[in-house]
């Protein structure tokens, strides 16, 4: 490499060289509409050569694109609502044993949701969110991923955690924010996280996980290139159609597309963003139509069909790792049967008959159960036994977690800096002073170590 003698030119070339060493060569475009020719348009050209819209054909007929007149993007399914396989030659691409395990996890999820919802209404939990109507999306997609894939959830992906091995005790410990909680009591309920399962901790702020996933996927792309002998990994991001109205969604898809990163964007379109129906959210053809606009491979799937969800996720993961990496968007169609959360009364903005109709007509549990019964793999006796044992297991984990102590107060200060700063030390000392002076107002009996946690913190950081 030769350097120019101007300070500006020397600095520029050094930056370019540094970027090349850090990031490797820029990924080459691999889609036909991104292939650019470095020549201007000729008098006989039949296609546009402007760099902003390559390979668009010229026309003398002016016709505006009218999305309302175009056909809607189709919805992929494998099994109809009666549990019947549509294409018997292809089948479900799932073994009987796998199907039974998936169904059992969906039942566990639905029972845990019901019991935890009731517990919140009793005042034993402060907050909860159910997954009714969306169990097949979370469990089905998670079953098609590998343990090494990095996952970013929104807040209705309890089934993803369950399918990956998050235990009932882990769920309950987080809901109670007790001393055994992975997050040490720092998050509100249903904001799970697991380093061991490669699932980032859920954030309350809507859609922030989407650009995080795009960035993580870029890092995974670099790792996959640097370690070709290891199994390649993808980033997977879950979000609702309401989150797709945030600016973070658009920024994330654009950077993922331009950098060609191995990322699966899975949108749960359940019809409502809290109280806002999709009819008030957008006028386009759902969320899938946006994927094509960003140059991303896109598919719309029937979220009540767990076999379709599994097959779509498997294929999307394969595509995401193809040719060095590319993002894929899957719009999973569902209906949110439950309230948005325990803080919401959905019957204030939708008719009860609408919800009951969906519960009766179609949902992922009944559809899979019909398929299992059609193959003589399931019956009413097995159903009753599973629900009875599951209820006992959930309640046992709940009662045990409820008895555990709260985390040590020191956790309110640790984990921010490697060592306690002078400012933090002052805060700890001030808090300790208040707790000592007003013991009746601040009962520390339920916290692990009581005020001793602050004493240990101050003593361990003294120089």
TrEMBL record:
Broad class of enzyme this protein falls into: oxidoreductase
Cellular compartments per GO CC: mitochondrial matrix
Known cofactor(s): thiamine diphosphate
Catalyzed reactions per annotation: N(6)-[(R)-lipoyl]-L-lysyl-[protein] + 3-methyl-2-oxobutanoate + H(+) = N(6)-[(R)-S(8)-2-methylpropanoyldihydrolipoyl]-L-lysyl-[protein] + CO2
Residue ranges of every copy of the Dehydrogenase E1 component domain listed in the record: 103-409
Pfam families: E1_dh
Keywords annotated in UniProt: Metal-binding, Mitochondrion, Oxidoreductase, Potassium, Thiamine pyrophosphate, Transit peptide
MF terms in GO: branched-chain 2-oxo acid dehydrogenase activity; metal ion binding
Gene Ontology BP, a term: branched-chain amino acid catabolic process
Disulfide bond as UniProt keyword: no
Cell compartments where the protein resides: Mitochondrion matrix
Chief subcellular location: mitochondrion
InterPro entries noted in UniProt: Alpha-ketoacid_DH_E1_comp, DH_E1, THDP-binding
EC number: 1.2.4.4
CDD domains: TPP_E1_PDC_ADC_BCADC
PANTHER family named among the record's database cross-references: 2-OXOISOVALERATE DEHYDROGENASE SUBUNIT ALPHA, MITOCHONDRIAL
Function, as annotated: The branched-chain alpha-keto dehydrogenase complex catalyzes the overall conversion of alpha-keto acids to acyl-CoA and CO(2). It contains multiple copies of three enzymatic components: branched-chain alpha-keto acid decarboxylase (E1), lipoamide acyltransferase (E2) and lipoamide dehydrogenase (E3).
Protein name (database record): 2-oxoisovalerate dehydrogenase subunit alpha
């Amino acid at each position: 490499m030769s350097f120019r003698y101007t300070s500006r030119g020397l600095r520029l070339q050094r930056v370019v060289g540094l970027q090349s060493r850090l990031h490797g060569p820029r990924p080459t475009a691999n889609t036909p509409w991104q292939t650019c020719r470095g020549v201007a348009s000729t008098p006989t050209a039949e296609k546009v050569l402007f760099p902003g819209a390559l390979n668009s054909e010229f026309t003398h007929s002016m016709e505006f694109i009218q999305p309302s007149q175009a056909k809607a993007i189709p919805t992929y399914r494998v099994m109809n609502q009666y549990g019947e396989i549509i294409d018997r030659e292809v089948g479900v691409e799932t073994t009987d044993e796998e199907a039974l395990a998936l169904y059992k996890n969906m039942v566990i999820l639905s029972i845990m949701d019901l019991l935890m919802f009731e517990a919140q209404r009793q005042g034993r939990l402060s907050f909860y969110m159910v997954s009714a109507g969306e169990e097949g999306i979370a469990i089905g997609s998670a079953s098609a991923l590998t343990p090494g894939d990095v996952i970013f959830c929104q807040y209705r992906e309890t089934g993803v955690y369950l399918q990956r091995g998050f235990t009932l005790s882990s769920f309950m410990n987080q809901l109670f924010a007790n001393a055994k909680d992975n997050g040490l009591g720092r998050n509100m309920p249903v904001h799970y996280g697991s380093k061991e399962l490669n699932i980032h901790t859920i954030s309350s702020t809507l859609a922030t996980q989407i650009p995080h996933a795009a960035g993580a996927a870029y890092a995974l792309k670099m790792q996959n290139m640097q370690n070709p002998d290891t199994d390649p990994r993808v980033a997977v991001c879950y979000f609702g159609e309401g989150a797709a109205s945030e600016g973070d969604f658009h920024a994330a898809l654009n950077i993922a597309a331009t950098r060609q990163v191995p990322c699966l964007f899975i949108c749960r379109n359940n019809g409502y963003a809290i109280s806002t129906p999709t009819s008030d959210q957008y006028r386009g053809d759902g969320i899938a139509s946006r994927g094509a606009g960003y140059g991303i491979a896109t598919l719309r799937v029937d979220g009540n069909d767990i076999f379709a969800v599994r097959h779509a996720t498997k294929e999307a993961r394969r595509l995401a790792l193809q040719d060095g990496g590319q993002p894929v968007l899957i719009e999973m169609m569902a209906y949110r049967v439950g309230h948005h959360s325990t803080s919401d009364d959905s019957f204030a903005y939708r008719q009860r008959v609408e919800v009951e109709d969906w519960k009766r007509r179609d949902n992922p549990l009944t559809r899979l159960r019909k398929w299992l019964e059609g193959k003589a793999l399931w019956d009413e006796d097995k159903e009753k036994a599973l629900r009875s044992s599951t209820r006992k297991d959930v309640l046992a984990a709940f009662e045990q977690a409820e008895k555990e102590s709260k985390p040590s107060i020191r956790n309110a200060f640790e984990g921010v800096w490697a060592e306690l700063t002078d400012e933090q030390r002052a805060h700890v000392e001030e808090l300790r002073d208040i707790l000592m002076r007003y013991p009746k107002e601040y009962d520390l009996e339920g916290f692990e170590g009581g005020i001793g946690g602050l004493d240990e913190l101050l003593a361990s950081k003294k120089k």
